[in-house]
């Protein structure tokens, strides 16, 4: 190579080194060197340190390999679950979402999900190619799936988000056996994904602020609740401690997302009309009155909560308890009721015991008077308590380090 260069390149009075090709291994470097020899210009020599820096700069930069997530989701036919599904399939790092739905078959499961997505006006925004609807029975040890489907899902699953839970205020703890066994079987699915080369799939459990409704302090920290912090109803009691016990015993990354009161989404304002608060507000039409509660609620739109759930569930956060709630509160009587009246709703503002009395003597047909459904629930509260203090509002403390605050801050 050196000989051929000398035949065609005039280096003037400068001698071409014996190792010129090795000292200038690239075409650009060799061309520059020959030009300096030909023109007689002084050539700047790179020090060894400069050469090393150049190599490090060129070859020490690595693009992270994007981790593709495969998530199993329960509750996709519920308000929160549907919005969590919307969040998941919109993310580039999510490859597939297995929607575990109680249904006759997979087609029925898919149809049920699509129906609920349409009702919530988010169907057209979803990348449905990422969704896999599976007819399941959470109370069954293998979730009611055939062995091949279960093993296939377990072989690649990276996380489970459990949004499905019975929301019957009147059940006692013993009535939640199926729900609790379902929680157990989902955790077992996470553990079935582990191998010598990878950790178990993470488990994120959408719990409720009702699990700490009787916390004696004014502020509830992000920590495991005591049993007596829960409201005296099966819905709250059934959610305590199970996930943390699994994490302690198995090393599973289990996160409990303690969610406050969820309300309509921020875009379409869709709110499940059978939930307690919409039913209470509907009494303005059916019994012509709303109670003047001494309550300062904290409400969060469902799509905002769903974003927080997705962020935490897909993060690298370790086992923890996270409070997913709005830090801002308002007065039921002094803020909400005037706002409803300003929006055109006509009603009497009455003391809680009077509202309960009117509710009890109102039309018993739930089809024309749906708010009658909350009658059994309000029986658990003595009217005198409502008159003196209303519902206790526990303020949940949020750790600013949790990613959930990206969504709700």
From TrEMBL:
This is Thioester reductase (TE) domain-containing protein. Keywords: Phosphopantetheine, Phosphoprotein. The lineage of its organism: Eukaryota, Fungi, Dikarya, Ascomycota, Pezizomycotina. The keyword Ribosomal protein does not apply. Residues 73-309 form the Thioester reductase (TE) domain. Transmembrane segments: none annotated. It comes from the Eukaryota.
């Amino acid at each position: 190579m050196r000989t051929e260069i000398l035949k065609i390149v005039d280096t003037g009075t400068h001698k071409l080194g014996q190792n010129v090709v090795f000292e200038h291994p690239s075409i650009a470097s060799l061309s520059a060197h020959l030009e300096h020899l030909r023109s007689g210009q002084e050539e700047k020599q790179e020090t060894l340190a400069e050469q090393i820096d150049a190599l490090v700069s060129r070859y020490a930069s690595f693009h992270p390999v994007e981790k593709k997530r495969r998530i199993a989701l329960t509750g996709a036919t519920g308000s929160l679950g549907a919005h969590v599904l919307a969040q998941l399939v919109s993310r580039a790092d999510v490859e597939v979402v297995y929607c575990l739905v109680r249904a006759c078959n997979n087609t029925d499961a898919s149809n049920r999900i699509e129906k609920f997505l349409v009702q919530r006006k988010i169907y057209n925004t979803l990348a449905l190619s990422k969704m896999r609807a599976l007819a399941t029975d959470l109370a069954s040890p293998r979730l009611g799936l055939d062995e091949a489907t279960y093993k296939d899902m377990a072989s690649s699953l990276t996380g489970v988000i459990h949004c499905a839970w019975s929301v019957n205020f009147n059940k006692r703890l013993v009535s939640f056996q199926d729900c609790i066994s379902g929680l157990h079987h989902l955790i077992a699915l996470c553990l079935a994904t582990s191998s010598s080369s990878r950790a178990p799939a993470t488990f994120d459990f959408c719990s409720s602020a009702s699990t700490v409704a009787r916390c004696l302090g004014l502020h509830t920290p992000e920590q495991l609740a005591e049993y007596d912090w829960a409201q005296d109803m099966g819905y709250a009691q059934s959610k305590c401690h199970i996930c943390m016990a699994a994490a302690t015993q198995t090393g599973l990354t289990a996160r409990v997302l303690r969610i406050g009161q969820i309300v309509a989404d921020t875009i379409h304002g869709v709110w499940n009309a059978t939930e307690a608060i919409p039913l209470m507000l509907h009494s303005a039409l059916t019994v012509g009155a709303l109670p003047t509660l001494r309550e300062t609620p904290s409400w969060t739109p469902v799509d905002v909560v769903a974003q927080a759930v997705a962020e935490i569930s897909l993060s690298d956060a370790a086992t923890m308890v996270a409070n997913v709630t709005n830090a801002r509160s308002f007065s039921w009587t002094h803020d909400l009721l005037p706002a409803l009246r300003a929006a055109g709703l006509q009603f009497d503002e009455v003391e809680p015991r009077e509202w309960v009395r009117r509710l009890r003597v109102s039309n018993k047909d739930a089809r024309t008077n749906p708010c009658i459904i909350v009658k059994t629930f309000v029986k658990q509260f003595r009217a005198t308590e409502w008159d003196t203090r209303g519902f206790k509002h526990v303020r949940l403390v949020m750790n600013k380090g949790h990613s959930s605050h990206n969504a709700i801050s």
